[in-house]
Amino acid sequence: MNRINEPFAFDGEIDWEPAGEGIRRKILTYNAEVMMVRVEFQAGAVGTPHSHPHIQCSLVEAGTFDVTIAGRTERLKQGDSFLVPPHAVHGAVAVEAGVLLDVFTPMREDFV
């Protein structure tokens, strides 16, 4: 279901989609300027280092992650957050099972 420009997203109505080994995601609300995505990691799952032209802000909703941005790694837990500038190489390792809430600007066209 295409939810672009929809003002509300209901979690129970959105399907999970695979996003890598031990990782799945839900595309929540979005328009051309911004997108919110919930990403669930099993313990030990690796968000492979990558880059993209989008600005990314992420909140650790649950779990513990080792997050690397441009060569710097920090251990983050529930309530912590991080900011990824455009084109910065970044990735995450789930030290324990957890969930990230990612916000991208502009929206990730490759996700829809």
TrEMBL record:
Name of protein: Cupin domain-containing protein
Tree of life domain: Bacteria
Residue stretches making up the Cupin type-2 domain: 38-103
